[in-house]
Automatic annotation (TrEMBL):
It comes from Novosphingobium cyanobacteriorum. It catalyses: GDP-beta-L-fucose + NADP(+) = GDP-4-dehydro-alpha-D-rhamnose + NADPH + H(+). Pfam families: Epimerase. The keyword Protein biosynthesis does not apply. Belongs to the NAD(P)-dependent epimerase/dehydratase family. Fucose synthase subfamily. This is GDP-L-fucose synthase. The active site is at residue 132.
Length: 313
């Protein structure tokens, strides 16, 4: 089997590529500069030339609350273009199997917790990431529509907030976990007495290690196909992938302070947005099929900090 992993140099695409290679799958990759997935003609030429059997779509314009809120046009345009080009050109080239990576932000801001798959399109989205969420909903509907009309087998996974080796540690544009690992680490190195956390510290977030996400992706993509297929009649439009437990941002900050050895004060900057108050996923559909996360938050944060120190710090 030849699988194109779009976004193989990203955190999720990298973890999925490593797992596919461990299983002896022949993977095809292109960097962003070799193939810009917003370029329709280039994507068409790529699929015609490469003749892959499957696609994992882990390429996207990705960022945390500040990036989403500051660059909404880039988040909606680039993600819509990437999804439309990859899904359509994969179909046109006869590719039967595709896995699309969405996000938990597709669900309404006030969805009942934990959020199950049926909460999609039942209410108003969180404004800080609405353009990105709309693009991700379009991705689900692209897959669903091509399956309905053309009989393809395009599946969508909705990950909760992810973290781990290969994350983006940009001070402003990253997600909370890498941002705080970097900020606490730099405070320890410089001897700063205070670390600033955005928002009130009250929002709840669920964090899943990227290696667990990669296992779930392969499971849904069908490398453990018999297990999955036994549970998918009729096929689901999309399926949640979460850790099963959430923490407040203040609790996450205490854990990262402990792991990095920071002993100073934490200050909450309430001029910064909190975003969604809570977004805990109901992942019972997937866990009932046999997948379960293996990496707990304490171990995951420690491993991510070790990776950051060894690689980037
Ligand atoms: N990280 C998280 O917490 C979560 C992520 N997800 C989803 O998982 C998927 C992977 O995310 P993650 O690995 O964290 O993101 P990363 O930013 O780490 O990786 C994204 C990859 O996509 C590539 N890419 C972006 N735009 C283009 C383009 N126009 N053409 C070709 N390649 C492009 C990037 O290349 P380059 O860097 O060179 O631009 C990068 O390698 C995304 O769909 C994301 O929405 C869902 C929920 C949570
Ligand atoms: C995965 C998900 O990621 C984004 O949504 P988000 O969950 O709100 O993501 P976040 O990780 O950026 O923030 C989580 C919480 O943490 C707080 N927070 C504190 N201090 C920092 C901080 O320093 N940086 C960041 N980024 N957040 C901070 C922050 O204020 C917020 O309350 C989506 O836009 C969208 O991309 C998406 O789907």
């Amino acid at each position: 089997m030849r699988v194109y992993v779009a976004g193989h140099r990203g955190m999720v695409g990298g973890a999925i590529s490593r797992k596919l290679e461990e299983r002896g799958v022949d993977i095809v990759t292109r960097t962003h500069s070799e193939l810009d997935l917003t370029d329709q003609a280039a994507v068409r030429n790529f699929f015609v030339a490469e003749k892959v059997d499957g696609v994992v779509l882990a390429a996207a314009k990705v960022g945390g609350i500040h990036a989403n809120n500051t660059y909404p046009a880039e988040f909606i345009y680039e993600n819509l273009m990437i999804e439309a080009n990859v899904v359509h050109q994969a179909y046109a080239a006869g590719v039967q199997r595709l896995l699309f990576l969405g996000s938990s932000c597709i669900y309404p801001r006030a969805a009942p917790q934990p959020m199950d798959e049926q909460a999609l399109l039942t209410g108003i989205l969180e404004p800080t990431n609405e353009p990105y969420a709309i693009a991700k909903i379009a991705g689900i509907k692209l897959c669903e529509s091509y399956n309905r009309q053309y009989g393809t087998d395009y599946r969508s996974v909705m990950p909760t907030n992810l973290y781990g080796p290969g994350d983006n540690f940009h001070p402003d544009n990253s997600h909370v976990m890498p941002a705080l690992i970097r900020r606490f680490h730099e405070a320890v190195v410089t001897g700063a007495k205070e670390v600033v956390i955005w928002g009130t510290g009250n929002p709840l977030r669920e964090f899943l290690h990227v290696d667990d996400m990669a296992d779930a992706s392969l499971f849904v993509f069908g490398l453990d196909r018999e297990t999955y297929e036994a549970h998918t009649t009729p096929m689901l439009s999309h399926i949640n992938v979460g850790y099963g437990k959430d923490v407040t941002i203040a609790e996450l900050a205490s854990l990262i302070a402990q792991v990095t050895g920071f002993a100073g004060q934490v200050r909450f900057d309430t001029t910064r947005p909190d975003g969604t108050p809570r977004k805990l996923m109901d992942s019972s559909r997937l866990t009932s099929m046999g997948w379960a996360p293996k990496i707990n938050l304490n171990r995951g944060v420690q491993e991510t900090y070790d990776w950051y120190q060894a690689t980037l710090a």
